[in-house]
Amino acid sequence: MHEVGPEMDKTIVHAYGVVAPNASFSRFPAGIADTRVWVHRVENLAAIVGLLPVAGFGVANWEENATNVRWLEQVARRHNEVLQYAATTGDVVPLRLPSLYGNLDSLADTLRSSGDRLERALQRIQGKLEWSVKIYRSAKQEDPPVTPEAASGRDYLLARSRNLSARSAAWEHLGEQVLEIHETLGHTSAEYVRNQPQDAALSGRKEQMLLNGAYLVARADQNRFLDLVDEIADRPSANGLLLEVGGPWPAYNFTGDVEATTEQVTG
């Protein structure tokens, strides 16, 4: 148990995630701003927490740095490193940035008031981790030109109509193919969701993203899930598609109804 001393007057509590009260962790990586991370237990739940200096990480600082990409990346990296360690060691309900509390008593009050939802979330992800599978459209799948050469205006319009129909049919087939892959992977998962595809700025790839899937997979089924991804990628029907698997991650996509409480810190 972390002892609360005078330093609490100059710090703010940051919660990384929620775990069961009997969760055991050997040693967390350093948290945001190189602060120490520990487990704070409150009755039937516990939170992974750290103390951040109010000067630099108070609510006003988060608002000021809302568009500071470098600052946000550094903070998010440390936040995710702590959660990643917790997820690979046990079950954790991740809390999104920022999850700030004026003191440990305030955090305890939130855990008590949200106890039922948090316990249900922990039960939902027990023994499971999140994996992502993204499908991109490779150059092999590029559309034919829309405006073919033609001898006359009538021929041009007919050729263009056929071309557009072919493009539409190709897109429909592609959509069905991607959906089939998503459903096949979902059958190996406890739960699965299809998120909005990311643009190139977020994905970091020039190819068009067709699927941004998240899959909640039992730890015991992870190898089977990954083998299935490889098997799908090797199918002739997947020619022209690029499959990218990522994880395991904390189960963000399957605990999204759990909201953190941020409090204004004064003084």
Which key terms come to mind for this protein?
267 residues; alpha+beta; Alpha-Beta Plaits; 5-stranded antiparallel beta sheet; 4-stranded antiparallel beta sheet; 8 helices; elongated
Question: Could you explain how this protein is built, in words?
Answer:
The protein is an alpha+beta fold and 267 residues long. It has two domains: 121 residues, no CATH class; 124 residues, 2-Layer Sandwich (Alpha-Beta Plaits), CATH 3.30.70. It has eight helices and nine strands. The strands form two sheets. Strands 1, 2, 3, 4 and 5 form a five-stranded antiparallel beta sheet that branches. β2 and β3 form a beta hairpin. The longest helix is centred in the middle third of the chain and has 34 residues. It is elongated, with a radius of gyration of 24 Å. The N terminus and C terminus are likely disordered.
Distance between the termini: 26 Å
Q: Unreliable runs, pLDDT <50, ≥5 residues?
A: 1-7, 260-267
Question: Per the principal axes of the C-alpha atoms, what is the gross shape?
Answer: elongated
Binned, the helix content reads 25-40%
| Rg from alpha-carbon coordinates | 24 Å
Helix-strand layout with pairing:
Blueprint: E1 11-19, E2 37-42, E3 45-53, H1 54-57, H2 59-64, H3 69-89, E4 93-94, E5 100-101, H4 104-113, H5 115-125, E6 128-137, H6 153-186, E7 191-195, H7 200-203, E8 208-218, H8 222-233, E9 241-249
Antiparallel strand pairs: 1-3, 1-4, 1-5, 2-3, 6-8, 6-9, 7-8
Concise summary:
The protein has helices at 54-57, 59-64, 69-89, 104-113, 115-125, 153-186, 200-203, 222-233; strands at 11-19, 37-42, 45-53, 93-94, 100-101, 128-137, 191-195, 208-218, 241-249. By secondary structure, the protein is α+β, with helices and mostly antiparallel strands.
